[in-house]
Amino acid sequence: MSKKVILSGIQSTGKLTLGNYLGAIDNWVHMQEEYDCYYMIANLHTLTVRNNPEELKNNTLKILATYIAAGLNPEKNTLFIQSQVKEHAELGWILDCYTYMGELSRMTQFKDKSAKHADNINAGLFTYPALMAADILLYQADLVPVGEDQRQHLEITRDLAERFNKIYGKTFVVPEAYVRKESARIMGLQDPTSKMSKSATNPNDVIFVEDEPEIILKKFKKAVTDSENKVKFDPENKPGVSNLMQIYASITGKTMEEIENEFEGKGYGDFKMTVANSVIDKLKPVQEKYKQILEDKEYLEKIYTKGAENARKIAAKTLEDVKNKIGIL
Ligand code: TYM
Known about the structure:
Blueprint (H helix, E strand, L loop, with lengths): L4 E7 L6 H12 L6 E7 L10 H17 L8 E4 L5 H10 L4 H5 L2 H9 L6 H15 L5 E3 L5 H18 L7 E3 L34 H9 L17 H14 L3 H7 L5 H28 L1 H30 L3
Parallel strand pairs: 1-2, 2-3, 4-5
The chain binds ligand 1.
């Protein structure tokens, strides 16, 4: 039996966060043996906000280097850059024409980003989910490993696939979101009621994958907790402590109960140090490899060129089927 197919991706804006790492990349690493995996860098999606062109190019390569440094084997996974497989833009346009304004206006990401970039609420930001659906449906993906914040986009992708299949007959696999419980939604360290995000205004709110150990330690020491001094999982009443537990759980694989027992009778100082050290130990080998890989631009070019070639084979087949069905010569 052939392997199930996975597709996922990350936008190439700004620096990767611990949320991106635990919510996405780290989960992907565990899936590479069992599945046929396609991981892309969503640089077309990035255009929905203004970027410095040089920075965008560099960020694209940095994310690819992080994928490899984190343990995604380029021989086993197809690693590629979205813009280099033109079928994404083409199917994106076609799917735009099957997506309703009403569905798009319900997207929380659109509402959040419009509020953040009130001077640039562009059409791309609005139709973003149709391009994301194209990314996924081109590869007939069964599963899409993402953080909780992308679940709504997965729902619209499923709706689009079903809508299209209903009109034209079976064309797309209807994909499912794969969201790992522990790392589904890593929250900010200063504001544990909202998700850790690249665009945080307070730098202490977010751990970046490339942060030095001292910085990571400092940020965890400053993390907001509460006055109870008891390590207990209770996201509603103890969001700060629960978030730190979640980070620790997703790195160590321990259950919440095991973590509660481990810190029974100990203060938050010890707890924060242990969580910080688990993050430092997890990221250290990735950071070291990342620096080496990023220097070797030729190697990176080889990987993304081969990745795009592999990806195109599958994407072109799906697009041709779609065009035939809808009458595009
Ligand atoms: P992006 O670039 O915002 O985030 C990339 C991945 O990281 C996850 N993530 C988090 N997970 C847990 N806690 C957090 N605080 C956190 N912050 C981010 C996201 O859920 C995501 O899995 N639209 C997508 C990119 C994309 C895509 C796709 C994803 C484009 N096409 C096709 C999957 C399939 C995005 O903006 O993710």
